[in-house]
Design goal:
Helices cover about 30% and strands about 30% of the residues. The protein is of the alpha/beta class. The protein has 3 domains: about 70 residues, Roll (Archaeosine Trna-guanine Transglycosylase, Chain: A, domain 4), CATH 2.30.130.10; about 110 residues, RNA methyltransferase domain (HRMD) like (Transcription Regulator spoIIAA, 2-Layer Sandwich); about 190 residues, Vaccinia Virus protein VP39 (Rossmann fold, 3-Layer(aba) Sandwich), CATH 3.40.50. It has a 7-stranded mixed beta sheet, with helices on both faces. It has a 6-stranded mixed beta sheet with strand order 2-6-5-4-1-3. A hairpin with a 2-residue loop joins strand 12 and strand 13. The longest helix is centred in the C-terminal third of the chain and has 17 residues. It is globular. The model has no long low-confidence stretch (mean pLDDT about 95).
Length: about 400
């Protein structure tokens, strides 16, 4: 059936025009001055400037405060199957040469920063996981799935949906979180390699798309620092930092997490790598508990390397101040558990806390500890997790050594 409705046309505020020309990928609802008709989720919306000239085109989402996810800004062009295929190729080319057979888990599409707003695609061996953050992708999901499968030939492809989408996806599009889009079902966690270490990804129900791929580079740094050290991995999840530390020669690795399920996953990951002599030699200790409470109670426990990688402390901008206070407190607690010559690795995944503010908060705690310290390193996003605009810049870590 041919859609006889005229093309959805929007005009926006002068401020929004400037922002879009600057490359920002979001048009918010309160920036829309007028539109020619009611729009449907997933249809293309063409944005015009005050002089009625083409400005941008993107995917319309009537139920989101981000009303349009920008696909292209500049000169007019046609958004069709060929355009989508080329954009996928561009993502694959950006990652060419970054990974080899020792790493089979990484991000193929990183949302807006790769030109696919509100969508990520992760690979775990022969399994692909597509996660969607806007209903705008749901009407064209079959065509998108066909494109990805025909290009990458996975054994299976799994759909993950952000929590805010799950209800509308089920009622309006008959889609569910964890659905198998193509290929065989998933009966157990999916194994994959990361720099030669075997991990499991819970692709159907796990956090993110099943694993925290974004911390790969920091895990490698930790491995290089771990020889002969007693390691505390707080908010350990499935034990990624601990496994790298073990392979790097750590004497012991304590996984501290409030989730028994996460600790069980870490135990399985250690077992999967038990053929590695360094891993089998490292003493692995799981501890279930709240990190803040445990660090306060166990003042007698000392470590040579403390890793603090908590979940986001700021879900919205209004929580920034409280988050910075929490990061300072956490860093100070971590420092108090460090023996002489120990190293603190403090990370943040809070997009609403900027890198400069976070680094300064940890440095202030280091100074407040009264100990002499030396800053070894700060890190940001991994190559497969590019961040092309401010709101996408969430990951940062700082390494401090104490005497």
């Amino acid at each position: 059936m041919v859609n006889s409705s005229p093309r959805l046309r929007l005009r926006v505020t002068s401020t929004a025009e400037t922002i879009l020309r600057g490359g920002h990928p979001w048009l918010f609802a309160d920036s829309v001055r007028d539109q020619n008709r009611v729009g449907q989720a997933g249809e293309l919306a063409v944005i015009f400037d005050r002089n009625n000239r083409f400005l941008a085109v993107g995917l319309y989402d009537p139920d989101s405060p981000i009303r349009v996810r920008i696909l292209h800004c500049g000169r007019p062009l046609t958004i069709d199957a060929s355009w989508r295929a080329q954009r996928l190729e561009d993502c694959l080319k950006r990652r060419a040469g970054h990974f080899n057979s020792s790493t089979t888990g990484y991000r193929l599409i990183n949302g807006e920063s790769d030109g696919w707003p509100g969508l990520v695609l992760d690979q775990y061996g022969s399994t692909l996981v597509l996660k969607i953050y806007t209903a705008a992708w749901l009407p064209g999901l079959e065509e998108l799935t066909d494109l990805i499968v025909s290009r990458l030939h996975p054994e299976r492809m799994v759909l993950r949906l952000s929590r805010n989408l799950q209800s509308i996806a089920a009622t309006s599009f008959k889609r569910r979180d964890g659905e198998i889009l193509r290929g065989s079902s998933v009966e157990s966690p999916v194994p994959f390699l990361e720099n030669g270490i075997v991990f499991e990804a819970e692709v159907v129900q796990g956090q993110k798309t099943g694993f925290f791929l974004d911390q790969r580079e920091n895990r490698r740094h930790v491995e290089s620092l771990a020889a002969g050290r007693r390691v505390l991995n707080a908010f350990s999840f499935s034990g990624g930092f601990s496994l790298y530390a073990a392979r790097g020669g750590a004497v012991s690795a304590t996984n501290l997490d409030i989730s028994a399920h996460a600790l069980a996953g870490a135990k399985r990951n250690f077992f999967l790598n038990s053929s590695c002599e360094e891993v089998s030699r490292c003493r692995h200790e799981p501890v279930q508990g709240d990190t803040f409470e445990w660090l306060e109670r166990h003042s007698d426990r000392k470590f040579d390397l403390v890793i603090l990688d908590p979940p986001s402390f700021a879900k919205r901008a209004s929580e920034q101040s409280a988050a910075l206070h929490a990061y300072k407190r956490l860093a100070l607690l971590g420092i108090s558990r460090l023996d002489e010559g120990g190293i603190l690795v403090s990370a943040s995944c809070s997009a609403h806390v900027g890198a400069d503010s976070f680094f300064e908060a940890v440095r202030l705690s280091a100074t407040a500890s009264g100990r002499h310290w030396n800053e070894k390193l700060t890190t940001r996003h991994a190559p497969d997790h590019p961040a092309s605009f401010r709101e996408a810049e969430y990951l940062k870590a700082i390494y401090l050594e104490f005497s």
